[in-house]
Amino acid sequence: MPEFTDLLFYGLAALTLGFGFLTVANPFSRNPVTNAMFLVLTIISMAGLFVLLHAFFLAAIQVLVYAGAVMVLFLFVIMLLDLPEENRRQIKTLTLGLGTIAVAAIAGIFIKAISHAAPLAASDRWLDGETKPLGKILFETYLLPFEILSLLLLVAMVGVILLSKKDLK
After folding, report:
1. Average pLDDT of 111-128?
2. 8 vs 82, higher pLDDT
3. Residues 17-48 as b or e (16 or more Cβ within 10 Å = b)
4. Beta-carbon neighbour count of residue 165 at 10 Å?
5. Does domain 4-164 have CATH number 1.20.120.1200?
């Protein structure tokens, strides 16, 4: 019989994956603001996963920084470039194919990294919610992935701008 925290984890993980899918491929609306709102819901459900890991600082930062500041920036970009439906760029098969290849490559790298990763030793765990060990691990051990994530956010902002612009003829 699964415990309540296990059920909560599976529920939050399903919500995160579902909202993440709706962020990328929203069948309900072609409005980019709707996709941004689904991204906010994804971020909030991820914060719930951090709370289950007793990483309360990460959960708070997740909501404050990403759901707050970054999403406000994304919404400003979307609203400033607001275009009527007929002027929005149509998805071309070449860009869809290249995007699929890029996602498959990232997924392959992710799966390879997870399969070769060793579990953390009990002394290396930072799940007790303290910020000093988290900062030490983040800026010493995982500095390169941290910088790659910031570059990924920049690419996402550029992607929002390019998806919102009309086709140049």
Report:
1. 68
2. 8
3. eebbebbeeeeeeeebeebbbbbbbbbbbbbb
4. 13
5. yes
C-alpha dihedral sign at 16, 21, 24, 25: negative
Tens of pLDDT along 39-72?
Answer: 889 999 999 999 988 888 888 888 888 888 878 8
Pull the structure tokens for residue 46.
């991820």
Q: What is the pTM of this model?
A: 0.58
Q: Report the residue count for the chain.
A: 169
CA 5 to chain centre: 23
Q: 49 near 95, Cβ under 8 Å? A: no
Computed on alpha carbons and rounded to an integer, the radius of gyration of the chain in Å comes to: 18
User: What sign does the dihedral 74-79-83-85 (CA atoms) show?
Assistant: positive
Residue 89, amino acid: R
Tokens 């699964």 belong to residue: 2
d(CA 15, CA 99): 24
Which position has the token pair 């579990």?
119
pLDDT at 157: 79
